[in-house]
Amino acid sequence: MNQKLPSVLLENAVNELASLPGIGKKTALRLALYLLRRDIGYAEALAEAIVNLRRHVVYCKQCHNISDSEICTICANPVRDHTLVCVVENIKDVMAIENTGQFKGVYHVLGGIISPMDGIGPGDLQITSLIERVAKGEIKEVILALSTTMEGDTTNFFIYRKLSSYDVKVSVIARGISIGDEIEYTDEITLGRSIQNRTSFNDSIKI
Known about the structure:
Elements: H1 8-18, H2 25-37, H3 40-56, E1 58-59, E2 66-67, H4 73-76, E3 81-88, H5 91-100, E4 105-109, H6 127-135, E5 141-144, H7 150-163, E6 169-172, H8 188-196, E7 199-200, H9 201-204
Parallel strand pairs: 3-4, 3-5, 5-6
Antiparallel strand pairs: 1-2, 6-7
Helix pairs in contact: 1-2, 5-8
C-alpha cells in the first residue's frame, strides 16, 4: 500500500501496527482508523495494557513459562504433581496441554527446539536448567512433549542422553499426534490422550 495518508501521525501509527506479525499495511490502516473512531479512553487502556505486558510480564524462574511473578501459578500450586515434569517447546504448548485438563504435573519450557538450519543449538535452549532441576532428585518422570518433527525428535534424543545418568523416568507422548504435527495445533482430545498414553522414551527409539 503506497497511498498517501492525510496525517503524519496516522502514517506513524499504521507503520507501527504493520510491524506486527501477520498485519499488513491495509489491515494496519483499518485498525488505526478504528482506533480513531473510538473514544480516547479506549486507546489509553489499550496502550496501557501493552506497556504493562512488556514491562511487567516475566518468565518463571523455575519452568520459564510466562508469569506475573517470579514463580508462575502452575509451579506455585501445591496441588500439582511436582515430581512429574512435561517438557515443551514454547508457552503456547503449555496452554494447549492445560486446555486438555489431562495433565496435573508441572512444565519446563525450552524456548524452542534444536534446529541447526536455523542456527539454534542446545545452548540456545533451557536444557541446562532442566538438567539442574532433575539433578535435585525430586523429579520422578520427565515427559518429552515436543512436536513430532525431525527437529523435535532430535531435541528429544539430546535431552534423553543428557538425563540418562540420572534416576528419572523419561517418557515421550504417544504418537496419536501425526508425524510432523506441532503441539499447539493439535486438537485437545488427541493431545490429552497422547499425554495419558505416553511411553518410555527408551522403548520409542527401539522401534
